[in-house]
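Budget justification aside, the reviewers requested a transparent look at the raw inputs and outputs of the sequence design task funded under Objective 1. We therefore reproduce one unedited record. The lines immediately below are the structure tokens for a 57-residue chain.
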């Protein structure tokens, strides 16, 4: 339960907030301006275990 709350807080609060703050410093960090508007979407990626990969072969 606590991990679900932390996960939602990370995805919905921390990443967008920190991302917007970081965008303010992109020109100084990278030496050039952004080409496109950044997105703050984190997608779930299913990671297969080694045993599942071996079974697929």
């Amino acid at each position: 339960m606590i991990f679900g709350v932390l996960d939602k807080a990370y995805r919905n609060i921390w990443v967008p907030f920190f991302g917007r703050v970081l965008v303010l410093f992109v020109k100084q960090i990278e030496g050039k301006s952004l080409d496109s508007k950044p997105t703050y979407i984190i997608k779930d990626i299913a990671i297969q275990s080694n045993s599942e990969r071996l079974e697929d072969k």
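The helical segments are 2-23, 26-30, 50-56. The chain has one domain: 2-42. Computational costs for records of this kind are itemized in the attached budget.
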